[in-house]
């Protein structure tokens, strides 16, 4: 698919809903700030496209979440770690009725009288979902846990610039093996 600015989920995007066109095609209707945008893609495909623009895919993001959180279904995904864009699917992403919610836009959620959950978004909008309060709460907790795990991992990866005292000559041995020999090396010209 060619690059289209209307397909980029910004930090203001809060919810992606399934929407069938007049001719029965599944599209996405998503809230960006206080505006709705309609795009001719399935909600899960829109999430996958944005993950691909960030260098991964829905499959890769789900594998990352499962690796960090352990097994589980309907894993949260991170579209942008830098912008804290963590999203959760309300149902299985394989189902056409899957709704995606940006975790950072959830102000609060409460159990509704009909057995579902009422979600209050930061922009003042409210959405009633058919999943249970317990299910939604667990998905939110998994998303927060994923964020903590990713941020913790990022801190472990970064090392302060060091002063290196040893140098090595890396030489190819027989076959595909390489060996490291400690010693002085020539300065580059």
Instruction: Tell me the Rg in angstroms.
Output: 22 Å
Task: Report strand %.
Answer: 25-35%
Shape field = elongated
Main sheet specs: 6 strands, antiparallel
| First-last Cα distance | 47 Å
Structural class determined from secondary elements: alpha+beta
**How much is the average pLDDT?**
87
Give the helix level as a range of percent. 25-40%
Task: Characterize this entry briefly.
This protein is an alpha+beta fold. It contains 3 helices and 11 strands; from the N terminus they run βββααββββββαββ. It has one domain.
Describe it.
This protein has 189 residues and is α+β, with helices and mostly antiparallel strands. It has one domain. Helices cover 25% and strands 30% of the residues. It has 3 helices and 11 strands; from the N terminus they run E-E-E-H-H-E-E-E-E-E-E-H-E-E. The chain has helices at 43-53, 58-69, 133-157; strands at 13-20, 26-32, 35-39, 77-80, 85-89, 100-102, 106-111, 117-121, 126-129, 168-172, 178-182. The strands form 3 sheets. Strands 3-2-1-6-5-4 form a 6-stranded antiparallel β-sheet, sandwiched between helices. A 3-stranded antiparallel β-sheet has the order 7-8-9, with helices on one face. Strand 7 and strand 8 form a beta hairpin. 23% of the residues are buried. It comes from Sporosarcina aquimarina. This is Competence protein ComK.
């Amino acid at each position: 698919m060619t690059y289209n600015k209307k397909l980029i989920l910004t930090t203001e995007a809060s919810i992606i809903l399934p929407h069938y066109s007049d001719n029965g095609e599944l599209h996405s209707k998503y809230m960006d700030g206080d505006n709705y945008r309609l795009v001719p893609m399935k909600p899960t495909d829109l999430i996958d496209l944005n993950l691909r623009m960030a260098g991964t895919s829905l499959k890769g993001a789900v594998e990352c979440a499962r690796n960090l959180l352990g097994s589980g279904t309907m894993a949260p995904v991170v579209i942008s770690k830098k912008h804290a864009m963590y999203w959760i699917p309300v149902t299985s992403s394989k189902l056409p009725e899957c709704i995606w919610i940006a975790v950072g836009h959830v102000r609060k959620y409460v159990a509704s009288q009909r057995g579902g959950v009422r979600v209050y978004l930061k922009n003042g909008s409210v959405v009633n979902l058919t999943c249970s309060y317990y299910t939604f709460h667990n998905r939110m907790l998994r998303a927060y846990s994923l964020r903590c795990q990713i941020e913790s991992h990022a801190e472990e990866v970064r090392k302060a610039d060091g002063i290196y005292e040893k140098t090595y000559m890396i030489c190819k041995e027989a076959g595909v093996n390489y060996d490291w020999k400690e010693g002085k090396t020539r300065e580059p010209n």
